[in-house]
């Protein structure tokens, strides 16, 4: 998966469940996205592959932001 599509990929998953995450600060936005994705996975709404892809994308992006 290309990194240019990463946040779009996560937003598409979140929007599928009626969730939209926005914060002016990118680190905060990524943290909120991570919490939402973890909650979706815990509740069995997304599969393991989607969950792991999202977490990988978020962690990489957080490293880039720091």
UniProtKB/TrEMBL annotation:
Highest taxon of the lineage: Bacteria
Protein name per Swiss-Prot or TrEMBL: Uncharacterized protein YqgQ
């Amino acid at each position: 998966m290309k990194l240019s599509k990463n946040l779009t990929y996560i937003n598409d998953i979140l929007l599928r469940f009626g969730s939209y995450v926005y914060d002016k600060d990118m680190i905060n936005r990524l943290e909120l996205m991570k919490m939402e994705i973890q909650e979706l996975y815990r509740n069995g709404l997304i599969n393991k592959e989607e969950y792991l892809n999202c977490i990988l994308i978020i962690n990489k992006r957080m490293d880039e932001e720091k």
